[in-house]
Design a protein that fits this description.
1 helix
Length: 243
């Protein structure tokens, strides 16, 4: 009789999905939150914390800007350094060897629940040179990038929309022995982008973005001395790994 009772109780536990504690294996709780490793989503970075991402951007300049429609892969390294009082410092290096951009600027981030806002201002230096194909040109440019980012996140994925104004502060161009400098600020245009940050494995995060550069002068092509006085839509596909 006692054996029958034990059998019925065990059967009841089995049907109800209950497993005695002594038979359970410990399961590690998944505490991952996309906010911590994110680099695009606006949030308060860890004080004195440091993050780096590495990636590529695929760009197709307009045919009338370049004699041939070349898809130029831009190598990108992006870094974030956390500061007190909701501030952070972001640096960026983008290169295609013949043209290089180095940018640095502060950020101020605000987050509430699943939403975030980030305000920033970057100062960038561009150096490019073209010594092939009959060219003997070089360019040095200083550019301001005031920017605003708006984000929404879930536990494992984050969406961020970012807009920039592009203001050129100084241009120095050289063709052979001839040098021309322009120091008067002018607005070159603006950019709009959307970034998706997705957890792939453990704490590994992959970033993919689509950016529209609406500009008269696109920094990787400064050394070509374009004379077209018009704005271009220059699409850019971006992807990176947060290291």
């Amino acid at each position: 009789m006692r054996f029958v009772c034990r059998f019925l109780i065990s059967l009841l536990f089995l049907l109800s999905g209950y497993v005695p504690l002594s038979a359970q294996e410990p399961v590690a709780k998944d505490t991952f939150d996309i906010t911590k490793p994110s680099m695009q989503f606006p949030h308060q970075y860890k004080k004195w914390g440091f993050q780096v991402s590495a990636g590529l951007s695929m760009v197709k300049p307009p045919k009338d800007l370049l004699e041939s429609a070349i898809q130029a892969p831009l190598v990108n390294i992006h870094a974030t350094f956390g500061l007190p009082w909701k501030f952070s410092l972001e640096g960026d290096i983008t290169t295609i060897l013949v043209s290089n951009q180095f940018a640095l600027g502060p950020r101020l981030s605000f987050a509430h629940r699943n939403f975030g806002v980030k305000i920033g201002w970057d100062l960038a230096f561009v150096y490019g040179q073209m010594r092939q194909g009959g060219f003997n040109n070089s360019t040095q440019v200083w550019i301001h990038y005031p920017n605003l980012s708006l984000g929404y996140k879930l536990k494992r994925i984050a969406f961020t929309v970012k807009g920039e104004m592009v203001t050129v502060a100084k241009v120095t161009t050289k063709s052979g022995e001839n040098e021309v400098s322009r120091t008067k600020n002018f607005i070159d245009g603006g950019t709009a982008a959307i970034y998706i940050e997705q957890r792939l494995h453990k704490n590994t995060v992959f970033v993919i973005g689509l950016k529209d550069n609406y500009l008269k002068y696109y920094w990787p092509t400064w050394m070509l001395f374009s004379t077209f006085n018009r704005y271009y839509h220059i699409p850019e596909l971006y992807f990176s790994w947060i290291l």
